[in-house]
Write a structure and sequence with these properties.
Chain lengths: 122, 122
DNA sequence: CGCGATACTTTGCATCGCAAAGCGCGCGGC
DNA sequence: GCCGCGCGCTTTGCGATGCAAAGTATCGCG
């Protein structure tokens, strides 16, 4: 079966932004989209099951990319960094999500055509 | 808003297998699930928009992880590597996909609660 | 023959994820 | 009142990895 010219890049999923498409950062962004009021560093750490260092690094990357904003303040005389999705970040994340949905759809379509390919291997 | 103990790891998505969760390999696996009869190296290369070296490396990784099988043969006096999903590979990919769906659902739920958070910021 | 094209593989580099160690600063014990 | 523990976060170091450019091998064609 030859691949038609039309199919060129059919499954390349260019929209999968490297900054977003990363387990830890995907976790962070999903957490944030679910908590529009923002989340404190320790909460984020727990929700995403990340170590301090890890979360710190990923937040820096996300901030650099202007996907999140970090508000460093004080709460009960302790430092407290509150993290929020930026408007642009929300937009880009939703775009990314749309591509993910496409992946899911592409697979679902195929899985449906061959629900148990081990028994009727082409 | 404090995060309850229950929410611990709520968004950690442990099921996002590092081997699968990678733009290029995700492309390859999706292509393969859509073509259960297997795909030749050049076809895969076109579908995923990958360079030779890139595809070669990723296929090696996928084979190492026993997600795909590589059948190196000859066709018209030219080497031809045909690539197929293994049964285990298909299973693990579908598991991965289930987690992706969860991500999409989590986000959709949140986006629905605040369709345009830029206008009514918290 | 030799030149180009096809089908890969290997090498090299620059990036990046991750964990361990480090830093600053309140607070409680003594 | 200083001392050390703990919390909140940052920096450092390293091993792994994605990616592209270069390399190898074989075939077809003039």
């Amino acid at each position: 079966m030859a691949i038609s010219e039309r199919e060129h890049g059919r499954f390349s999923y260019e929209g999968l932004d490297r900054v977003i498409h990363e387990k830890a950062r995907l976790s962070v962004l999903t957490s944030l989209v679910a908590h529009p009021k923002g989340l404190a560093f320790p909460d984020l750490k727990r929700l995403c099951n990340l170590t301090d260092g890890n979360l710190s690094r990923h937040l820096a990357v996300l901030q650099e990319a202007d996907l999140v904003s970090l508000e460093k303040g004080q709460s009960q005389n302790r430092p407290q960094t509150v993290c929020r999705l930026t408007t642009a970040g929300r937009g880009r994340f939703l775009d990314y999500l749309a591509v993910l949905e496409q992946v899911v759809r592409d697979t679902a379509k195929a899985a449906e055509r061959a629900p148990d390919f081990s028994t009727k291997t082409a």
